[in-house]
């Protein structure tokens, strides 16, 4: 079946631009996660949804970052007024539930801010 | 706060030899522990997990991991390495009460023929 998809795969933004990154989770997966992965490091947690409810946004680095999942399926991560330090790979993952269920990852969106 | 340490950036083994990739963790409450693998130009893939029960868990591609509560470790093992096992391996922990996962920085495994 279809896995987690993310779009765009690559995004180049000028500093100060707003960007929107999309995640399509596996159908029926209740939980959805966003991570930021810098080169040579592991994924860093950003935020977590259960259905449409954002249960944890403790990892969002600033108020320029905003995530939503209005209908409990597709999610969008928005970054306003991008800065160079926002350059990273943004990973989306979904799982049947939270807790002990494993996550299925998308291919990521590589964001480069110039 | 929860954390994961993968003390080795690189592990090199010869094909056919056993391999171990180390992971230690810190979490309040009971841990859920996971191993994921990332092949070049591919996304992270789930390998195995420990939730409860038997301390030795078996996963995909012949990998297994041993949960050791007293040493707060969850080392990944395979009895006989293959060249195709060469990849980047990540250990992750989640507190059983929450959804947030914390990942280690990864260990690059290279298996030489």
Note down, in words, how this protein is organized.
The complex is a heterodimer of chains A (114) and B (113). Chain A is an all-beta fold. Chain A contains no helices and eleven strands. Chain A has strands spanning 5-7, 10-13, 19-24, 31-37, 44-50, 53-56, 65-68, 75-79, 88-95, 104-105, 109-113. Chain B has one domain (3-112): Sandwich (Immunoglobulin-like), CATH 2.60.40. Chain B has no helices and twelve strands. In chain B, a hairpin with a 4-residue loop joins strand 8 and strand 9. The radius of gyration of chain B is 13 Å and the shape is globular. The chains are: A mainly beta (114), B mainly beta (113).
What is the helix content of chain A? Answer: under 10%
**Shape estimate of chain B:** globular
The CATH top-level class label of chain A: Mainly Beta
Return Rg of chain B in Å.
13 Å
How many individual helices of chain B? 0
Estimate what percentage of residues of chain B fall within beta strands: over 45%
How far apart are the termini of chain A? 37 Å
CATH architecture of chain A: Sandwich
Main beta sheet of chain B, described?
A: 6 strands, mixed
In the predicted model, the low-confidence regions of chain B spanning at least 5 consecutive residues are none
Share of helix of chain B, binned: under 10%
Oligomer designation: heterodimer
The CATH topology of chain A corresponds to Immunoglobulin-like
Mean pLDDT of chain A: 95
Unreliable stretches of chain A: none
Shape call of chain A: globular
Please identify, by name, the CATH architecture of chain B: Sandwich
Task: Kindly report how far apart the N and C termini of chain B lie.
Answer: 41 Å
- Count every helix of chain A, treating DSSP H or I runs of 4 or more residues as helices: 0
Structural class of chain B: mainly beta
């Amino acid at each position: 079946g279809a896995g987690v998809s993310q779009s765009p795969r690559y995004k180049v933004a000028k500093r100060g631009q707003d960007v929107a990154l999309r995640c399509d989770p596996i159908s029926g997966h209740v939980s959805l996660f966003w991570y930021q992965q810098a080169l040579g490091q592991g994924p860093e947690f950003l935020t977590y949804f259960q259905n449409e409810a954002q249960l944890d946004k403790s990892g969002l680095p600033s108020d320029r970052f905003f995530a939503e999942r209005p209908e409990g399926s597709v999610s969008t991560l928005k970054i306003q007024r991008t800065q160079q330090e926002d350059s990273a790979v943004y990973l989306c993952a979904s799982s049947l539930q939270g807790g002990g269920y494993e996550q299925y990852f998308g291919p990521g969106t590589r964001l480069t801010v110039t | 706060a929860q954390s994961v340490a993968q003390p080795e950036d690189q592990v090199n083994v010869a094909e056919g030899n056993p391999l171990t990739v180390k992971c230690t963790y810190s979490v309040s409450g009971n841990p859920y522990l996971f191993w994921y693998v990332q092949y070049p130009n591919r996304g992270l893939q789930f390998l195995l997990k420990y939730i409860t029960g038997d301390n030795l868990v078996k996963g995909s591609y012949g990998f297994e991991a041993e949960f050791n509560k007293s040493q707060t470790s969850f080392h990944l093992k395979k009895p006989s390495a293959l060249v195709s096992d060469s990849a980047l391996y990540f250990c992750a922990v989640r507190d059983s009460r929450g959804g947030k996962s914390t990942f280690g920085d990864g260990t690059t495994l290279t298996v030489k023929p």
